[in-house]
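One-letter codes give the sequence; each number marks local geometry. A record appears below:


***
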Amino acid sequence: MELGDTIAETLGTWDVPTRITDAQKKEMKKLLIADSFCGLDPSESKNDSSRRSFLHMTAEATVAGLVSAAGFEFVTPHRALAQTTTSPDAALQELMDGNKRFTAERLTACGHDLTILKQHTIEKQEPFAAVLSCADSRVPVELVFDQTIGHIFVTRIAGNIATSEIIASLEYGAGVLGAKVILVMGHSGCGAVKATIQAKEVPGQISALYPHIQPAVDQTGPSLEAATKANAKIQAALLRQGSTVISGLVKENKLKVAAAYYDIGTGIVTLLV
């Protein structure tokens, strides 16, 4: 049974105080179920939003005890590790833990106060991790790792390749901003890798991607998944070896560079070794 169903069932069977009307109980069910999946209705008006806030506070006050008594817990915002005390291994684990919350539909990032986050990141940013991912619209990096504003320094390019511009950006993320881990993430169904395998004539400058991905194809053959995984590992190795800034931080154990594969069907991120 999903968390939302559990909340709805609990509200329907427990004796909620009489000062809460049936209409309010109905609304509370709707809000709590939605919030359990970080869902907000984009059509909601300002008045609805105010009512939502009031009812949500009421719901927390009257229902939290009942749900706790029934043995269930609400998903609360997960506090990102303090960058200054985070080790590279802990930073990588935080990403993987966030992905587990994403696949379990128990996101916490949307529970953070965005106003406070924005205020704290106006003058500076201190991301604990950097991610090099494909530009594919099906790979929403922050969402996949259940993170929010200021947590991840993201660079995106078709085929998640380590061009000189990407390397420069990641050097800044690790060397200046202090990210503790760089994760190079390929994904299932990658069009850039597929195009490289097919080696067909394409319009414009799309073929400029091919030379960067070809070593992975040469290594694995025409298997899209195998080539995509090999490409992520090769690009990670290029970052470790091709950048004096990144390699220096790795040698000092201040930074970890890893490769991963994201399955867009399941939402699962798998580390590659």
In short: Confidence is low (pLDDT under 50) at residues 1-18, 29-37, 39-77. The domain at 83-272 is CATH 3.40.1050.10 (Beta-carbonic Anhydrase; Chain A). The beta strands are 129-133, 152-156, 181-187, 256-262, 269-272. The first helix runs from residue 3 to 13.
